[in-house]
Amino acid sequence: MGRAQETFGKKENEKKRLKKKNDKEEKREQRKANAKPGQSLDEMLAYVDENGNISTTPPDPTKKRIIKTEDIRIGIARQEDLPQEDPVRLGTVAFFNDSKGYGFIKDSQTQESIFVHANGLAGGPIKEGDKVNFEVEMGQKGPTAVRVKAASATPPPAPAPAPAAT
């Protein structure tokens, strides 16, 4: 049987391994040379001052603050219930594509553009420039207008009374 042949890759890997071993040995020797034997504990300590910076001097005891354990809160404070606002909003249709069935409504209060799909229409078709009433729900990609109806500028007229029979 013949001896296993050494390839270029094997030689390179062996060189890398030896270089790594030598580097490690050199670093260990440098640490030994730079080590300061006989340091006292005070020389090895580091302190954190009132601003959070690391320093070699101990903190000033006059600046010490006492914190009670009752004052420490883990978590967040409970939020008060916000007053319910009217879910129905008023806006203007900024863009609507009938063939594709989607568009955008500009909210008259917040001036934000809200997506509307043809499935969200409740009161018939809409076109650009129409004033509409709508509600907002969160969709997959953000706020979506639902239950969209054309806003009536004036309330509908009351039915006329029937003529009295004689």
TrEMBL record:
Residues 22-32 have a biased composition (Basic and acidic residues). CDD domains: CSP_CDS (cd04458). It comes from Hymenobacter nivis. One of its GO terms (cellular component) is cytosol. Keywords: DNA-binding. GO terms for molecular function: DNA binding. SUPFAM superfamilies: Nucleic acid-binding proteins. Residues 1-41, 145-166 are annotated as: Disordered. This is DNA-binding protein. Pfam families: CSD. Residues 88-150 form the CSD domain. The keyword DNA-binding applies. Gene3D superfamilies: Nucleic acid-binding proteins.
